[in-house]
TrEMBL record:
Record flagged with keyword Nucleus: no
Assembly, per entry: Part of the 50S ribosomal subunit. Forms a cluster with proteins L14 and L19.
Top-level taxon of the source organism: Bacteria
Function: One of the primary rRNA binding proteins, it binds directly near the 3'-end of the 23S rRNA, where it nucleates assembly of the 50S subunit.
Protein name per its UniProtKB record: Large ribosomal subunit protein uL3
Pfam family, one: Ribosomal_L3
One MF term in the entry's GO annotations: structural constituent of ribosome
GO biological process: translation
Species assigned in the record: Candidatus Uhrbacteria bacterium RIFCSPHIGHO2_02_FULL_60_10
Keywords, alphabetical: Ribonucleoprotein, Ribosomal protein, RNA-binding, rRNA-binding
Species lineage: Bacteria, Candidatus Uhriibacteriota
SUPFAM superfamilies noted in UniProt: Translation proteins
């Protein structure tokens, strides 16, 4: 299993040999370091924790936790992968990925703030004529008179975006080992600079489970 912590850089495009344009999202992924290896006997499951963005001023708990790796990091993330082949201090970079790999990405979507039902839930809105002057984008009735309550889960206006989003089956188009850049086909959730977790090494699209 291949995995790394990256940051969203920007969107771009690449051209195939036949001239077809491929939209890609560029991710910058500096080399990460293994900070902790979890196993089933001690932790109940297998996982590998890696860190990026060295922390120059860690507190004592942070320094103690990453002592085996020899470096404290401000960003620590865990991947559920078989941990037998890793040890603290190992370096993980983009060189492990190859063009053609299908990966899964996890990021935080763009925050939209408080939005109404038309934008948030794709309501059609009310009629724009025949006396309707100020309720075009209102939700309409939220309940009946016979049951005097608003049921849980009713779609209403509220905060939109800023949620964890997982996208599967994004194909690796290009790997720039010198500049630590990954080019993935398609869109990746989040704004520029968003932290992205990349994992997977499938050679073909995977079914959703």
């Amino acid at each position: 299993m291949k995995f790394i912590i990256a940051k969203k850089l920007e969107m771009s495009q690449r051209f195939k040999e036949d001239g077809t344009v491929v939209p890609v999202t560029l991710l910058t992924a500096e080399p990460c370091q293994v900070t902790q290896v979890k196993n089933a006997d001690q932790d109940g499951y297998e996982a590998v924790q890696i860190g990026t963005e060295p922390d120059k001023h860690p507190n004592k708990p942070e320094a103690g936790h990453t002592k085996a790796a020899g470096q404290a990091f401000s960003v620590l993330k865990e991947f559920r992968v078989p941990s037998g082949a890793f040890k603290p201090g190992d370096v993980i970079d983009v060189g492990q990925f190859e063009p053609g790999d299908y990966v899964q990405v996890i990021g935080t979507s763009k925050g939209k703030g408080f939005q109404g039902v038309v934008k948030r839930h794709h309501f059609a809105g009310g009629p724009a004529s025949h006396g309707h002057k100020d309720n075009l984008r209102m939700p309409g009735s939220i309940g009946s008179g016979g049951m005097q309550r608003v049921f849980k889960g009713l779609r209403m206006g509220g905060r939109m975006g800023g949620e964890q989003v997982t996208v599967k089956n994004l194909q690796v188009v290009e790997v720039d080992k010198t500049n630590h850049v990954l080019a993935l086909k398609g869109a990746v959730p989040g704004a520029r600079g968003t932290l992205i977790l990349v994992s997977g090494d499938a050679k073909e699209k995977q079914a959703w489970r």
